[in-house]
Design brief:
The protein is of the alpha/beta class. Helices cover 43% and strands 18% of the residues. It is found in: Cell envelope.
Length: 375
């Protein structure tokens, strides 16, 4: 398993390097399915303003990783550029106001991770009317987006679903001996629909889904309440697994099961984002797995796309594909997600520099880290 994961990481890295190398050329043949064209006329030598809009701060990745990594890449590519940053705190109306303010301040390109993909179409249309290209980051917004970078989101759900199914089937166990609970992401997030579809493509017909929820705002508190409802409806002894779409909601589901008096080990719980708390729960045995999406390659591609869009270059890469957002086919780079369990933490999040062993193995996690060979 760890060999396959390392291979996936190598393939992703190779694609990224090839993509960035070609992207800077401002043209070239579209060999693998698509290229993006922007009409900006800004000049890197003079510097310009770049808008960066992220959706929320409940998920720790955005402020801890995405924001600083994107800003660092933009600073590397355009040292004289100024990055204007705002976080919408899961409020689409607030994000609309933030975008309008940035356009008023004269940004030449916008990197947008939308709270609500459909509602964000108004932001994209407004930007286009002012000849400001938009790079859709992590979630694909509606409207005439110039470029899109994310992970293969359906694949994320498939990775989660397969990991859960494999664990439920381990040692010849019947994966239909009880019920699983599915706690999906926000209904306003198009990625959540992809995660859900991917998971269902693996799990449907092979497990019993006792209860399923779409969770507004990806709220861990709401996920805990949903898990409480599921336990009451299904019965504690019938719950054998939990599909949680991200680590925050996994934490809510785990808190619910502990509060309901589940014994140890808990039923396996999936997650996503490789949050530090999620990785520590994996080390301690409370959470079964998470999905690691290496944010630096995503941030690097977004930065390159933004500079190319602002300066009127074509972003063309061997790893580019096309994704339709209901308005147009958008030139997109989709990176590969990786499953993380206790057995490969060293080969994934630690090896990639996402966390150090010291960050993971603090306090109560020192002993389970030692037992897992993490040091």
């Amino acid at each position: 398993m760890s060999t396959r994961l390392r291979a996936a990481v190598r393939v992703t890295s190779a694609l990224l390097v090839a993509g960035l190398a070609v992207a800077g050329c401002g043209g070239g043949d579209d060999k693998d399915g698509g290229s993006g064209t922007a009409t900006g006329n800004a000049n890197v030598n003079d510097g310009f303003k770049i808008g960066l809009l992220l959706p929320e701060s409940k998920t720790t990745r955005y402020e801890t990783f995405d924001r600083p990594l994107i800003q660092a890449k933009l600073g590397e590519l355009c040292p004289k550029c100024q990055v204007l940053y705002q976080n919408a705190d899961q409020d689409p109306a607030k994000q609309q106001s933030q975008a309008e303010a940035m356009l008023t301040q004269g940004i030449k390109v916008m990197i947008l991770d939308p709270v609500d993909a459909k509602a964000a179409g108004a932001i994209v249309n407004n930007a286009q009317a002012q000849k400001v290209p938009v790079v859709s980051y992590d979630r694909l917004a509606s409207g005439p987006v110039s470029f899109y970078v994310s992970f293969d989101n359906r694949r994320v759900g498939m990775v989660q679903g397969q990991a859960l199914l494999d664990q439920l089937s381990a040692n010849g166990q019947d994966p239909k001996r009880g019920d699983i609970v599915m706690i999906n992401g926000s209904p306003t997030d198009p990625n959540a629909a992809d995660f859900k579809a991917g998971a269902h493509s693996v799990l449907d017909g092979k497990v019993n889904i006792g209860n399923e929820f779409d969770t507004p705002d990806w709220s861990p508190d709401r996920a805990q309440q949903e898990m409480d409802q599921a336990i009451t409806a299904i019965g504690r002894d019938r719950v054998i697994g939990v599909y949680a779409a991200n680590d925050g909601m996994a934490g809510g589901a785990i808190a619910s099961m502990k509060g309901a008096g589940f014994g140890t080990p808990l039923p396996p719980v999936t997650g996503q984002d490789a949050e530090l708390a999620g990785v520590q729960r994996i080390v301690s045995g409370d959470q079964f797995m998470t999905v690691f999406k290496s944010i630096k390659p995503e941030a690097d591609v977004a930065g390159q796309m933004a500079i190319d869009a602002a300066t009127g270059k074509d972003f063309t890469a061997q790893s580019t594909t096309m994704r339709n957002n209901g308005t147009k086919d958008v030139a997109s780079v989709l990176l590969e997600p990786v499953a993380v369990t206790k057995s490969n933490i060293k080969d994934t999040v630690i090896k990639d520099g996402f966390y150090t062993a010291a960050q993971i193995c603090t306090g109560a996690f020192a002993q389970p880290c030692a037992a897992a060979g993490i040091s």
